[in-house]
Write a structure and sequence with these properties.
454 residues; mainly alpha; 18 helices; 0% strand; disordered N terminus
Length: 454
């Protein structure tokens, strides 16, 4: 059995890392429990699967945009980690100010353009839902409210990069938990009016507020206390610092875009090429099989900034040891993932009661394989992102994106909605094979150079 001390020894070199991982596990564990309670509440809130499927699809689009920070957040995270590690607070304030001003300008521009253009978009056609199920005006209002909330989140989420740079990776998970609890409380106490359109708009408002409010509060706390000397200011904006953030951030942006197409567009693709009702079935399988992969991804969140810190300090040997340890954790996680399959039927009946679906073992196996692959990808990207070595990710994800979209367009009329999952699995295989080879080779060369100089 892996003990706390064993993990601590493997992670030696960053004393906050294990505490952040364990803290994040506690917080996200509560988040998982709440998310499972939320699903039946959504089913109760919307008694129409087409509208519920539309909501899940719109929520997945929201997730795309939340991931899509133009690379500015990731660029800030790596540069700020280096600044704080070296005690360079003047550079840290310039990086923070430049990132916030860039993000603020872009967010304002995109919001204005969206408000103008969105009126001319046929949202019912985009989400593949009839006007009988949800009127065009009601869907439009829900989309606008949600997008305004997303753009606010888009700006304020920069504080998450600051928290990661401060080696406080449990905090973003706590903020996410607070947002989820706020949504849970609403669904628990609010009685739907029975008017689908009105309830849809109301839920959009709750989603927008619950997502942004915690970020706003923690931003005030961080810059009011711990980083008071690094408070963003127009006077501290520097083009060279903005270029620092953007140059590294541009590669992160490209990786974000292609990875987003691979992993978080499935609901939209299923809704568009098949039907919104299938999104509900997808969500049921996905939520169950994403438990282990999400927990692994959670544990890896602080690894990114810890690897960046070790890379700046040229502790390449420590990074290599960490990689080997994480490979072992990934292998164990894959076994746990596959062990879920035999127990699916009783789990679904316990979770969803009378609304539980009949288990299709072939579909369950596909989701298990996809989640196993995501575990491996999470391990690889957490190290590569910390090193700032993104080209292999970019090429691998580009191939996966082109393959996935091509396969779905070509086969959608001849296959079921599960082609989306199958195409994702096959598309990511080349990256899963090539990335560890490239990464290990780069680190061994660097470690050898440092050992030679010593």
């Amino acid at each position: 059995m892996i003990s706390y001390n064993t993990i601590k020894q493997k992670y030696t070199g960053n004393r906050n890392l294990v505490d952040n991982v364990l803290g994040a596990f506690v917080v996200r564990g509560l988040g998982f429990l709440i998310s499972f309670v939320l699903f039946p509440l959504y089913l109760r809130y919307f008694n129409n699967n087409a509208v519920l499927g539309c909501w899940f699809t719109m929520y997945s689009v929201l997730t795309w945009i939340n991931m899509f920070d133009l690379g500015i957040g990731h660029g800030l995270r790596n540069h700020l980690t280096a600044d704080l590690s070296l005690g360079n607070y003047e550079s840290a304030r310039s990086h923070i100010s430049s990132a916030y001003i860039l993000m603020g300008g872009i967010t304002l521009l995109v919001t204005l353009i969206t408000l103008v253009v969105s009126r001319y978009i046929d949202w019912n056609r985009i989400f593949n839902i009839s006007t009988e199920a949800l009127s065009a005006e009601e869907l439009y209002q829900g989309v606008i409210v949600t997008l305004c909330g997303v753009f606010s989140f888009f700006f304020f989420k920069l504080i998450l990069s600051v928290l990661y740079a401060l080696q406080k990776s449990a905090w973003p998970n706590l903020l996410n938990l607070i947002s989820t609890v706020l949504m849970l409380l609403f669904l628990w106490v609010y009685t739907p009016t029975g008017e689908i359109g009105k309830d849809f708009i109301t839920l959009s408002w709750v989603q927008a507020i619950s997502g942004t409010l915690p970020l706003l509060v923690v931003t005030a706390l961080v810059f009011g206390k711990e980083l008071k000397s690094c408070l963003p200011s127009f006077h501290c904006f520097r083009w060279n610092k903005a270029n620092d953030v953007l140059s590294l951030g541009f590669l992160f942006l490209l990786v974000q875009v292609v990875y987003m197409v691979i992993t978080v567009t499935n609901e939209f693709i299923i809704s568009y090429f098949f039907a919104p009702a299938f999104v509900v079935e997808y969500q049921i399988y996905f939520k169950l099989f994403s438990i282990v992969s999400s927990l692994v991804a959670l544990a890896l969140i602080p690894v990114w900034s810890a690897v960046t810190k070790a890379f700046v300090e040229k502790r390449y040997g420590w990074i290599l040891k960490l990689i080997r340890f994480l490979y072992g954790i990934a292998a164990l996680s894959v076994l746990l993932q596959l062990a879920i399959i035999p127990f699916l039927d009783p789990i679904l009946k316990l979770w969803l009661g009378s609304k539980a679906i009949d288990v299709d073992v072939s579909v369950a196996l596909l989701f298990a394989l996809m989640s196993c692959e995501m575990i491996w990808v999470s391990v690889l990207t957490s190290i590569a992102n910390g090193l700032g070595k993104l080209k292999c990710q970019l090429y691998g994800f580009l191939f996966a994106t082109v393959f996935k979209i091509g396969a779905i367009v070509a086969l959608a009329s001849h296959a079921s909605w599960t082609i989306v999952v199958t195409a994702t699995i096959i598309g990511l295989l080349p990256y899963c094979i090539v990335q560890p080879i490239v990464m290990n080779r780069q680190l061994k060369v660097l470690n050898k150079e440092v050992s030679t100089h010593d």
